[in-house]
Amino acid sequence: MQKKGGNSHEDKSCDIGFIGLGVMGSMLTMNLVDHGYRVACFDLDQNKVESILAKDASERAENTEPRVEGCSSYTELLSKLKAPHLIIISVPAGDPVDHVCNHLIDAGIHADDIVVDTGNSLWTDSVAREDQYKGKFIFFSTAVSGGEVGARFGPSLMPSGNPYAWTRIEPVLKAIAAKVDPETGKPLESHTPGQPVLEGEPCATYIGPVGAGHYVKMVHNGIEYADMQLICETYHVMREALHMAPAEIAEVFRRWNEGKLNSYLMEISAEVLEQMDPETQQPLVDVILDRAGQKGTGLWTAVSALQVGSPAQTITSAVFARSISSLKDERVAASKVLAGPDAPSFSDDEKMSIINKLEQALYCSKICAYAQGFQLMAMAGKEHGWTLEFGEIAKIWRAGCIIRAVFLQSISQAYENNEDLANLLLDPFFAEQITQYQADWRESIAQATLAGVPCPAMMSALSYYDSYRTAVLPANLLQGQRDYFGAHTYQRVDKPAGKKYHIEWSDPARPQIAIKK
Ligand code: 6PG
């Protein structure tokens, strides 16, 4: 290997270069070292480099060699890596990714070196980057889910890009990924530094050409938005219509978490609701401002659903729910002007019955949100020429990621039983589940509506279900309207598909014209 001019740091002992040592980057680095990789690290902020060195020193066994090497430049980082170089970056999506890539080019990266982007990048940016950096290095993308703890002890990974690069990266990503017990679909977890889980099925699978992995992660986040919003709406009904205290609701969520709703989001929601504010000693949730933030991935999912023409109204409703939450001042003003129904009151038995129904409502809505996400991936996959393996995607979401849930085992089973499944709702298991629980679902929404408690995601899920199972929708009238004002034509149920007609609406005789070609 050729020496880079005058670089005194050159020792080529590191397996992986890591750039970007924010929360996710530093945790991924520590995960890598736990699996025996020696990592050269760089961040524009040298304090972060110092911190990761200190973290390694505090976690490794006494009298052992450092597992992390700090670097003060891109050139130094490259000089410490075994060739061909493997560099993982964790920087904010957008320009910072290109900033890093361009600095690596200036520092002398080679054509067969691999740069893996692990940020929440827009999938189309990943596609453009593979092309843009061709000949300079191999740009590969690996979407990561799991937040800080996932990154540290096992995230869910959605890699995509050059298949040759995948063969080089696969062992690394499969080592650091979350692991699942293949029989039960439950996560195998260890949160002890230096003692990673080595057995089980890794939550990392090759998704497809570059961009596909970030697209799948984007949809994961869209589903995450819907899942979170549905839990929030359920909480809201219990809070406002049933007048339950946060701790009481937490107890219900904990109970549900032991059954078919078992999931990470359910578990953390109970914990959030139980938390007291150290300052006021009130439930913390009551002092958290009801204005939701968002970084954009849910919005991207909603935009993509609209562009692809895939009905994903529960995901979209969840994005809009965040938008309306941020109109706080307007809502406060409107609450003084706009009337709602009188607050209902319920006996203890009625309350218990509504709570039981809400569990089924949340479950059925959740099935619809996932059905929408998978349908969106299927339609987008077709459009972009990706062969997405939905059974495998559901499998890598069983652990490590934010939407991890027991429920994903049933989804992977559904696609394994029928890889051409057009919609999750048509899987015999899920179809039966909704048949069994739909009366409770409808009743819960009716109760919420009568009490004036908004539940946009839950309602949209039910509308999705009802629309999807309806053979004749009112789009017949809609086509009539379009033809009336714009001569946009319509097709007939009793004539060959594709054959178009128009009525001369302004002519008293209303003659129908068959449109040629
Ligand atoms: C994950 C999360 C993670 C993050 C998103 C969503 O899978 O680990 O989805 O990517 O939480 O950025 O954040 P917003 O709610 O701010 O859009």
Automatic annotation (TrEMBL):
UniProt catalytic activity: 6-phospho-D-gluconate + NADP(+) = D-ribulose 5-phosphate + CO2 + NADPH
Pathway membership: Carbohydrate degradation; pentose phosphate pathway; D-ribulose 5-phosphate from D-glucose 6-phosphate (oxidative stage): step 3/3
One Pfam family from the record: NAD_binding_2
Residues at which substrate binds: N120, S145, G146, G147, H220, N221, Y225, K295, R322, R482, H488
Signal sequence bounds: none
Record's keyword terms, sorted: Gluconate utilization, NADP, Oxidoreductase, Pentose shunt
Bilayer-crossing regions: none
EC id: 1.1.1.44
Active site, renumbered: K217, E224
GO BP annotations, alphabetical order: D-gluconate metabolic process; pentose-phosphate shunt
Statement: the UniProt record of this protein carries the keyword Cytoplasm: no
Domain 6-phosphogluconate dehydrogenase C-terminal: from-to ranges: 213-506
UniProt-recorded Gene Ontology molecular function terms: NADP binding; phosphogluconate dehydrogenase (decarboxylating) activity
Top EC group: oxidoreductase
Family recorded in the similarity comment: Belongs to the 6-phosphogluconate dehydrogenase family.
Role: Catalyzes the oxidative decarboxylation of 6-phosphogluconate to ribulose 5-phosphate and CO(2), with concomitant reduction of NADP to NADPH.
Self-association and partners: Homodimer.
Name of the molecule in the record: 6-phosphogluconate dehydrogenase, decarboxylating
Organism per entry: Alteromonas portus
